[in-house]
Amino acid sequence: MSAYLVTVCPREADNHERLYLLAGDLSSEDVQRLTLELLHDPVAHTATWQALDAELAAPKAGALVEIAFRPGVTDNEAETILVGARHIGITGLKQAKTLRRVYVSAGQDEAVLRQYAGEHLLNDLIETAYITLEARSAERLQFYQHLLQLPAPHTPTVTRVALRGVSDSELERISREGILALSLAEMQAVRDYFEDLGRDPTDGELETLAQTWSEHCRHKTFRATISYQQTGSDGAIDPALHPALAELNAANGATINGLLNHYLRSATDAVSNAALLSAFVDNAGIVAFDENYEISFKVETHNHPSALEPFGGANTGVGGVVRDVLGVSAKPIAVTDVLCFGYPDLPESELSQGVLHPRRIREGVVAGVRDYGNKLGIPNVNGAVWYDHGYTANPLVFCGTLGIAPRGSHPRGVQPGDAIVVIGGRTGRDGIHGATFSSVELTHDTAETVGAAVQIGDPVTEKTVIDVLLQARDLGLYSAITDCGAGGLSSAVGEMGEETGAVVELRDVPLKYAGLQPWEIWISEAQERMVVSVPPQNVQTLLDLCRGEDVEATVIGHFTADGVLTVKHNQLTVVELDMAFLHSGGVQFKLNAAWQPAAKPAAKPANVDHNALLKATLGQPIVASNENIVRTYDHEVQAATVLKPLVGVDEDGPGDAGVLQPLVDSRRGVVLGCGLNPLYGKIDPYWMALAAVDEALRNIVAAGGDPEQTWILDNFCWGDPKLPDRLAGLVRASAGCHDAALAYRTPFISGKDSLNNEYRDAEGKRVAIPPTLLISAMALVPDVLQTISMDAKAAGNAIYLVGLTHDERGGAVSGLVGGIDNGAVPKVNLATAPSVHKAMHAAIRANSVRACHDLSEGGLAVAAAEMAFAGGFGLSLELSAVPTSTALSADALLWSESATRFLVEVAPEQAANFEAQLGTIAYAKIGHVIAEPRLIINDLAGQALIDSDLAALKAAWQA
Amino acid sequence: MTKVLVLRAPGINCDAEAAEALELAGATAERVHVNRLAEGSVQLADYGMLLIPGGFAYGDHLGAGRMLAVDLIYRLREDLSRFVADGRPVLGICNGFQVLVKTGLLPSDNVGQATLIDNASGNYECRWIKLGLNSASPCIFTQGLSGTLDLPVGHGEGRFLTDQATFEKLQANNQIVVQYLDQADQPTMEYPANPNGALHGIAGICNPAGNVFGLMPHPDRAFLPQHHPQWRRRGLDKEGPGMAIFRNGVRAMALV
């Protein structure tokens, strides 16, 4: 065994180098070849190599930081070196590690250097570093030798947990200390079950139950019976339009038998249509695209991991939701991402201990989304970024994936005797307790206790898995498929074998390294793994297919007919559980919810300079341009993106939706949009939910999507549902989803909840995130050539405002930067909104519209500015023409965020056609497009309230 | 011969759209995994053209295109050399361009003359750019084309780098096929018209014979008229701007 260190230095002056630590039966000639043929690019780098001990004997001048991944953390580049060495015929290379060396112009204080490195250069959770002002060879050698140390060999053991007869407090301790996240009632049910069996559970059995019964896998809160009470009434409610809200206003409160069934599934059942093929059952919702293809859509969150290791958390978030779509046998054709962060200008002094700065979280999350999506070759075509101080310790990372598959090609027929085959990545200790970890609140020392839950992804392995599984699908090789996500093999095999039973031999599971106990293999959430059920006659064909494309595939057991989940490790029995108990033995929760309306904000001074307020609102991070993020995502790969995220004359304006043409020989398209507004959620989650559904639909409609061919997804991110105030908000948001889905006749096809997004700081103070609901929408269009963009197209065209404006400045973004927040949250009018959307869509389909932009954050003022500067044309608008039901102030007309409104550009020759399509809908011509690059908005007396140069507005928006 | 081999490998991800564009140009495109060529179950010699698509072959971990280049050099060097020597068209798009440079097939049969490194911005960039075509180039993929061409780029390591002597040779041989243009239609190193800071705005080069062409921009994402970002403002063209390159390649393939 010999070890070498290769140093690769960029020719362009730089303060960092890449290091490669190579070990094995290597000659110095081998190392020379590895360096010259694999590790360095002679045009761009210089490289040196030496035996490790010789390298370390030579002192290094100056302060330096040498950073490596901690042992066990995925090091993709190092894995590639091992593959490359085989390609060039060097068989002696046994281990490779990559490191970064950074030279720092630091002062004389090593502690300061350490702090700087911790804050700027590495994440202690996944990386380890040698940090020094002056390199000392003995210490350095120790650091490098530690990197090469292999895990100690161990004897696999199965431990029994003494559960029979123990007290309630002991049950609670076992749950808490094992990060099982099971409630007392659940622990009691487990104890009683094993008392009846006359034995104690194994560690593997307890873990299996904890994974399967986790909030993440079972959605216990959304299935709980909830007793709801509220203070005060919502006023006069039309029960025909707002049935769920009316129910909550009953005098004695309401009892809700599961949010999922009572609100979401019941709404989908009521408004389902022939195109809806699968809702809430599979890994993703599925609808018919045309006679031959089906489209699937799923949105997930990866919040807790992203708080601790932003790159890895977001990276594996994308990887996970892509596997969900692969889990319905579909080819991923788009990803979406909606990100919620604390404000980037937060002073460091206000940051709690153990919390990463929002800028660092944003940088890491965006890089993680970019890395995985781009490397898989899936276009990122829709998303949003939101900011709120409530997300500082608890960022939210929503990742979505859209897939396409030939209709009927997703099999769901596990048969006893079918082989259980695990495909893709190897299993390591990474990601243990991810499912249960997502259900505990974060604290200042979470990073230390659940470090293993955080992982780095390996997108190229996932890409190869996608490549082979789509071929396997087309060859009909598997009888069922699922992703290996939360809970790892325990959940994947447990779910697939629910109706049959299964036997698994853990000895056969390919491992990244030795040292895992059987229960760890069983619940590890290591990434890039899929599980398929394969009829015996197809096993060899599948294994050959995988081997032919360098994908690891292994038979680890088979499905049975005995209804028992049996897991072995050689002679050891790790798990022996009835499927019936595993899947039905849980406890239905009973929870209390108590709603108290938010207090109205204090009145603010009304004299504002609207020109200045417009610039401030455009520059507010929620509204401001996300181009620096969007540009780093590939939105063109797969050659299907026919409406880009950035639009307009300079291709930098904020598009309302993404449009894809997934098939080259058909102009049929898919439109993607989303709605989210936690500022409304802070006032009332019911109206937030309606506004979010309306916004997602407005995105769709503005781009030309058909609101009557639209399907939606819900993602709730909330605080602790055991607290009655948090839960009441969740009830109201769910009720809003229900009422909106009925009114718009838009079915929910999939959903997910991420609860317990709370942070407890070192002083014990609890902070919950703002109530957050993301609605993602997908619509079909028969011809993508009938979709449109939001940028103004030509001087002389008329500008219309469609939809009524009310004085609704509660939660207005302008209120965050000096404008008025009057506490009146926008209330969608469900009586008229669906017909406004339909009429607007009819007008676009009639080719009468040149541009359409929906009004959302920032109201009319922001929408007009965006339409103007995206198109490079001015707009001249009259507030006196804006359609309202009662007289409103100019301030309200400009800044109200009333829902269901569109700003529309119409060529003069199409005006009659356009107006005919709108019929009796509230609309008015409020101005026209002008050649001069100015935004002019006149007040009710015709005086210019806003008169601003477009370049200045755009600069404010892009700042 | 009208059959094109579109190379697949771990991490290659633009093979499907490249095949679609080739089919639209009249070719038969077959997507073949590199392992099939290496084991000999598929012969490169049975194809008229080779297309190495975009993606992140082997994760681009040791530098973009590096590992697939090593793979081709060690497992397919002779087949590939003969294919190129026969004058058959070879097109490398984005990651495929990086692979061709790192195998040494570009600029000409020698490793280490040029490379593609991290974008000057330090970021991956996805945007449409304007290219100037060198009408004097021997490149068979751009024969008959002149003026400008709009195409999208999507890459993090697209900055073309070479030494002065090689640059002068490329220029003298008209091997510089496409360059990023500014608003005045001049080759530029200014961001964002030049998305990566490439030397002299070089976006794509060919070998001296003109049958091997690599470029960072993606004609394979620009074969339908509605792929163009400006069609809603300027009207719809007959076809996407990338089609001309594929049609030229397919025409040349038929002549070899």
CA-atom Rg of chain B in angstroms: 17 Å
Let me know the number of strands of chain B. 11
Low-confidence blocks of residues of chain B? none
- Give the termini separation of chain A: 56 Å
Query: What is the count of DSSP helices of chain A, taking H or I runs of 4+ residues?
Result: 32
Strand order of the largest sheet of chain A: 17-19-15-20-18-21-22
- Outline of chain B, from the CA principal axes? globular
Helix content of chain B: 25-40%
Overall outline of chain A: globular
Question: Would you tell me the overall average pLDDT of chain A?
Answer: 93
Q: How would you spell out the order of helices and strands of chain B?
A: EHEHEHEHEEEEHEEEHH
The main β sheet of chain B shows up as: 9 strands, mixed
Q: Give the termini distance of chain B in whole angstroms.
A: 8 Å
The proportion of residues in beta strands of chain A is: 15-25%
Secondary structure category of chain B = alpha/beta
Sheet with the most strands: spatial strand order of chain B: 2-1-3-4-11-10-9-6-7
Q: What does it look like?
A:
The complex is a heterodimer of chains A (959) and B (256). Chain A is built from 32 helices and 40 strands. Chain A has a seven-stranded mixed beta sheet. Chain A is an alpha+beta fold. In chain A, 33% of the residues lie in helices and 25% in strands. Helices cover 28% and strands 23% of the residues of chain B. A nine-stranded mixed beta sheet of chain B has the order 2-1-3-4-11-10-9-6-7, with helices on both faces. In chain B, strands 5-8 form a two-stranded antiparallel ribbon. The radius of gyration of chain B is 17 Å and the shape is globular. In chain B, 62% of the residues are buried. Chains A and B meet through helix 1, helix 3, helix 15 and helix 18 of A and helix 1, helix 3, strand 5 and strand 6 of B.
Summarize the entry for a quick read.
The complex is a heterodimer of chains A (959) and B (256). Chain A is an alpha+beta fold.
